[in-house]
Amino acid sequence: MANVIYTPNDILEQEFKTKMRGYDPIEVDEFLDNVIKDYEAYNKDLLTLREENDRLKAKIEQLSKAQPAPSRVKEAAPKSSAVTNFDILKRLSNLEREVFGKKLDQQASAQASSSDLSQNYTQDENDIEKTRQF
């Protein structure tokens, strides 16, 4: 409101000099009362719009921090920045791999060896069957 010359109170307290053939003071006062009401309404609307604008800017800033663009993540996010969900998931995955990885590796190797044995056994049976045909 830097460009405002008159406040509603300035308009209300304005006094005009009377002359012999001047305007009707009652009519001027009524007009100025309506101008004051409009002026106050515009001020309320302006204040409401500024608050909404600030709220929306804060929301945009919050959302942009929550979901940064992938290309900007490497550039804008220094090492000391807040931990993101991706970092948390990555750390959790590494932790699970460390804790459960040994068990999974043992199970996988056991399954692989049993499947190798069954595969070898099946090949042996196929070889025996081919030999019988001759």
Automatic annotation (TrEMBL):
Native species: Enterococcus pseudoavium
Listed InterPro entries: Cell_cycle_GpsB, DivIVA_domain, DivIVA_fam
Family: Belongs to the GpsB family.
Comp. bias intervals (Low complexity): 106-119
Keywords: Cell cycle, Cell division, Cell shape, Coiled coil, Cytoplasm
Coiled coil: 32-66
NCBIfam families: DivI1A_domain, PRK14127.1
Stored Pfam families: DivIVA
Biological role stated in the UniProt entry: Divisome component that associates with the complex late in its assembly, after the Z-ring is formed, and is dependent on DivIC and PBP2B for its recruitment to the divisome. Together with EzrA, is a key component of the system that regulates PBP1 localization during cell cycle progression. Its main role could be the removal of PBP1 from the cell pole after pole maturation is completed. Also contributes to the recruitment of PBP1 to the division complex. Not essential for septum formation.
Listed name of the protein: Cell cycle protein GpsB
